[in-house]
Amino acid sequence: MKGRRPAWVVGVDIGGTNLRVGTVPIEGGAPPVAVRRRSTRAASGSDRVLDRLVTMIRESVADVGRDNVAGIGLGAPGPLDRASGVVTETPNLGWRDYPLRDLVAEACGLPVTLDNDANCFTYGEWWMGAGRGSRRLVGITLGTGIGGGIVIDGEIHHGASGAAGEVGHMSIDFRGRRCPCGARGCIEAYASGPAIAVRAVEAIADGGDSILASMVGGDLGEITAEIVCRAAAAGDPHADGVVRDTARILATAVTNLIHLLNPDAVVIGGGVANAGDRLLRPLRREVRRRVFGAHMRACRIVQSELGDSAGVIGAAGVFMRAHHGRPR
Amino acid sequence: MKGRRPAWVVGVDIGGTNLRVGTVPIEGGAPPVAVRRRSTRAASGSDRVLDRLVTMIRESVADVGRDNVAGIGLGAPGPLDRASGVVTETPNLGWRDYPLRDLVAEACGLPVTLDNDANCFTYGEWWMGAGRGSRRLVGITLGTGIGGGIVIDGEIHHGASGAAGEVGHMSIDFRGRRCPCGARGCIEAYASGPAIAVRAVEAIADGGDSILASMVGGDLGEITAEIVCRAAAAGDPHADGVVRDTARILATAVTNLIHLLNPDAVVIGGGVANAGDRLLRPLRREVRRRVFGAHMRACRIVQSELGDSAGVIGAAGVFMRAHHGRPR
User: Fold this and answer.
1) A116: enclosing H helix or E strand
2) Residues A212, A234: contact at Cβ < 8 Å?
3) Is A259 in CB contact (< 8 Å) with chain B?
4) How far is A165 from chain B (nearest CA, A)?
5) Closest residue, chain A, to B291 (C-alpha)
6) Between the CA of residue B301 and those of A249, B43, B311, what are the distances in Å?
7) CB < 8 Å to A118, chain B
8) Closest-approach residue (CA) in chain B for A250
9) Residues lower than pLDDT 50 in chain B
């Protein structure tokens, strides 16, 4: 066994709802092995979350054998400081100046890298997913929040303070809806999962019949983006209107991204993207209406291929980029 | 003289209003020599514009001696195809599939490069202007139209079809003002020179006294962005409102750019930027209100230092990048 090069990297995707851990072959080309998923349970406190995360990592390491693991790539909600491995602040997790990278390294006895979760998503899709072969890729994650990442010539564009790719706070209405960030018209205030639910409740409140109310037994607080999409699929006009508006708002943001970066591909993932063509088809149609022809012909707008594993694969890819040179 | 390395590059900035030509020292560090300016007179037809441009280039070559000139860098309004040197379409100049680069090369007997004018502006400011030392720079030109460029690690980000940096068609209101491009809410439809004039006329039409009308002898068609800025400086509330709204709209776009690219610097130039602090101060204030702290601390928002020469210097820089390696 001695001197043999490790063949696996552990990828870790830390979300506000779920923790996901899997092992990814260094050579790429194959899907990750046995992605484990557990609820994050952020309310239990950072130490408990870390304990459970470390347990999951140890199980993944055991899957392939410790000697075969080169290290661990972590993806976490930002903002974070890659150089020091510290998560500066994550409202969803309640972490503040949390030295996540070194805590995991110490607990697991392996080298660790840390990057932003949406960057990891985008890097994963570039490496093994829907963004394969793209020289200029934009990734967008539509979930509890909206995140984004930019990969140019195989490198994540981190920006001057490591905070680039903040797609969720692109404003598409400078006098629009107030966003929790303090600004107005950010797409996160319209098209995140919770924002879609809020807009659906508003649409019902404006009057008219909707099957949405009966789908949640009258408790409008139970409406989710997924339920809105199902109601739209069932022909509910209120829900359909919300989905169309969501597509239009996202299309404006995607058009801005395409005009600015002229990418080969835009990959859209996250829970809300599970609506699939119901969201993507009107989105593409609206982008085509707005964007210049040359930009559009150069760019495909596609759904994530890696789904829930994109973050795990991308986090492992970031580790490999740092320790073993560029994947592919 | 023989075997001596040429010491100069001719930079050419082709605008809808003016042609500018100057010689720039290959070693950089010094301002361009004798920038010539003439009216473009696009209406005279492409051949006449080319004739006058070639005459200006020959005069500039004569300034420093033909043997001392390495070549010519052209900056022209896009969209254009850098590889073939063809200007695809410029509504302002009436050019269509115009093989500008080769026509100039043939007429002048020197090697020629061609790039987009706003890219040249940004590259010039990165090389010798307000963007010096920046690793991630966004340039914005506010004039008859609104253009933009992105320079990352000393390279212009051209994108998949050479059309990146289209800042003017960033929408900041998805249901907003119709832009001639067909989309809605593009900042060019609010904050270009002509759009500012239109909004000022609308503001007067909405009622109330304004010195704007008397400044143009009652002929509202004569109102320009410059006159609006002067009226605002003189305390006219309508003009002041237009300038403030312009700053707010541009601030939304700049915030979007900063969130997305997390640049070290944003350099703003073009005729409208001559309003200086009257525009930049409220713009910076509004950006600071909207953008995340870490992004803001990393980024300075500054006015062009090279002014009217930025395009000439940048076009020469693009030539030097192509033929002599990266400047600086």
Assistant:
1) strand A112-116
2) no
3) yes
4) 4
5) A183
6) 28, 36, 19
7) none
8) B174
9) 1-2
CA distance A51 to chain B (A): 30
Q: Is A262 helix (H, G, I), strand (E, B) or coil?
A: coil
Give the nearest partner residue to B174 out of A162, A165, A252, using CB atoms.
A252
pLDDT tens per residue across span B101-111: 999 999 999 99
Contacts of B299 in chain A (CB under 8 A): 160
Closest Cα in chain A to B162: A262
A169 at B interface, C-beta within 8 A: yes
Q: Can you give the pTM of this predicted structure?
A: 0.95
Quote the tokens at residue B127. Answer: 């090389």
Beta bridge pairs of residue B20: B13, B37
Judged by a CB distance cut-off of 8 A, whether residue A83 touches chain B is no
Number of H helices, E strands in chain A: 11, 13
Q: Are B314 and B11 in contact (CB under 8 A)?
A: yes
Strand bridging mode A8-14 / A18-25: antiparallel
Helix (H, G, I), strand (E, B) or coil at A192: coil
Pairing of strands A136-142, A265-269: parallel
Q: What is the rounded CA–CA span in Å between residue A102 and residue B132?
A: 36
Closest C-alpha among B99, B147, B88 to residue B123 = B147
CB contact under 8 A, B160 and A299: yes
Taking contacts as CB-CB distances below 8 angstroms, the residues of chain B near A297 are 161
Name which of A88, A159, A183 is nearest B262 (Cβ-Cβ). A159
Give the pLDDT confidence of A105-154 residue by residue, as tens digits.
999 999 999 999 999 999 999 999 999 999 999 999 999 899 999 999 99
What is the number of residues in chain A?
Answer: 328
Centroid of chain to Cα B69: 25
Residues in A touching B79 (Cβ below 8 Å): 292, 294
HEC assignment per residue over chain B: CCCCCCCEEEEEEECCCEEEEEEEECCCCCCCEEEEEEECCHHHCHHHHHHHHHHHHHHHHHHHCHHHEEEEEEEECCCEECCCCEEEEECCCCEEEECHHHHHHHHHCCCEEEEEHHHHHHHHHHHHCCCCCCCEEEEEEECCCEEEEEEECCEECCCCCCCCCCHHHCECECCCCECCCCCECECHHHHCHHHHHHHHHHHHHCCCCCHHHHHCCCCHHHCCHHHHHHHHHCCCHHHHHHHHHHHHHHHHHHHHHHHHHCCCEEEEECHHHHHCHHHHHHHHHHHHHHCCHHHHHCCEEEECCCHHHHHHHHHHHHHHHHHHCCCC
Write down the pLDDT at residue A1. 43
Q: What is the dihedral of CA B240, B241, B246, B247, to 10 degrees?
A: 70
Nearest to B11 by CA among B91, B126, B114: B114
Q: Tokens in use for B37?
A: 């300016």
Q: Chain A residue closest to B156 (CA)? A: A261
Contact B171 A136 (CB under 8 A): no
Of B158, B181, B260, the CB nearest to A166: B260
Q: Which two tokens stand for residue B230?
A: 């002067």
A237-261 vs B237-261: helix crossing angle, rounded to 10: 80
Q: Which residue ranges in chain A fall short of pLDDT 70?
A: 1-4, 29, 328
